[in-house]
Amino acid sequence: MTLAAQKIRLILELRQAGITDTEILAAVEKSPRELFVPPTFGDRAYDSVALPIGHGQTISQPVVVARMIAALDLNDRIKVLEIGAGSGYQTSILSHLCRRVYAIERHRDLLRDAQERLDMLKRYNVTAVVGDGMKGWPDQAPFERIIVSAAAAEVPDALIDQLAEGGVMIIPIGDQRRDQMITRVSRQNGVISMDELWPVRFLPLVPGRPDDRKTSKRASV
Ligand code: SAH
Predict the structure, then answer these.
(1) Distance (Å) from CA 148 to ligand 1 centroid
(2) Maximum Cα–Cα distance across the chain
(3) How far apart are CA 139 and CA 162, in angstroms?
(4) What is the pLDDT of residues 136-180, one digit of tens each?
(5) Residue 107, CA atoms < 13 Å, CB-side half-sphere
(6) Is residue 80 within 8 Å of residue 128, measured between CB atoms?
(7) Which of 63, 130, 149, 170 to mutate to test the pocket of ligand 1 (most atoms within 8 A of CB)?
(8) Domain around 131
(9) Mean pLDDT confidence for 50-60
(10) Residue to probe by mutation, ligand 1, list 34, 51, 57, most atoms within 8 Å of CB
C-alpha cells in the first residue's frame, strides 16, 4: 500500500474511533507521520501504534493524539502549551488547530529533530524550547489550553497555576505500573475541577532535564 493509501486508512480508523471533527482529521492529514518516525520505521509510519524515537521515548499512537486533541476543544484564537513534544508529530497537528503552540521537550536532540520537521512543514506558529515541562512556561502563561503527553502521578502545581480562567488541560494521571486516566482539568470561576475521561498508557513525565541531572550528580559527589 502506498503512503497516501495508508494515510487514508488512518483517517478512516480515526473516524471509526469516533473522531469526526473534520478540522482535526484535516490537521492529521496535513501532518505526514512518515517524517516524524526514524527512517527504519518509515514503512510502519501509518500503523496505529506508538513507535520508538530514541531516548526510550515513542511517537504517540495517532488515535491517542487525535482523541486528546478532540478533548482539548481548540479554535484558532487559542494559545496552547504542549508538554513532551517528542517527535513533534502532535505539535504539528496542534499547530493547524490553534493560534500558537508553545512546546516543551526535555531531550535536546529530540527537540532539535522536531524543530527541523516543523520548519520543513512551515509550522511557523510553533515556539519550542528544551526544558522541564513540569514547571510550565511562566513567561508565556496563562494558557487557555495545556496538553501533556507523558503521565504524572498528579497534576503538577505549576501547570494548574498557568491554566487560564476558562482553560482546559488534558493530562494522563496515574501510577506508572498500571493504566493511567486521561484527565480533563478545568478552571471555571477560579475553581479547579477534574474529570477522568478514558484509560491510557503513557511514558512517565520526568522532572528536570537530562543535562541538569548530570550537573546535580556531579554536585552531590
Ligand atoms: N507526543 C509526542 C511524544 C510523546 S513521548 C509525539 O507524538 O512524538 C513523551 C515525551 O515527553 C518524550 O519525548 C519525553 O522526553 C517528554 N517528557 C517527559 N518528561 C518531560 C518533562 N518534564 N518536560 C518536557 N518533556 C518531557
Answers:
(1) 8
(2) 56
(3) 10
(4) 999 999 999 999 999 999 999 999 999 999 999 999 999 888 889
(5) 17
(6) no
(7) 149
(8) 3-206
(9) 95
(10) 57
pLDDT for residue 215 is more than 90: no
Ligand 1 atom 13 nearest Cα: 86
- Give the distance (Å) from ligand 1 centre to CA of residue 202: 10
CATH value at residue 195: 3.40.50.150
Per the structure, the count of domains in the chain is 1
Residue closest to 42 by CA, chosen among 6, 11, 66, 9: 6
- pLDDT computed for residue 177 by the predictor: 80
Residue nearest to atom 26 of ligand 1 (CA): 84
For residue range 170-187, what is the model confidence (pLDDT) as tens digits?
Answer: 999 998 888 899 999 999
Is residue 212 in a domain?
no
Residue whose Cα lies nearest atom 10 of ligand 1: it is: 84
Q: Model pTM?
A: 0.95
User: Do the beta carbons of residue 203 and residue 149 sit within 8 Å?
Assistant: no
219 lies in some domain: no
Q: Tell me how far the alpha carbon of residue 105 lies from the centroid of ligand 1, in angstroms.
A: 6
Q: Which residues are catalytic?
A: 60
Segment 81-97 shows an average pLDDT of 98
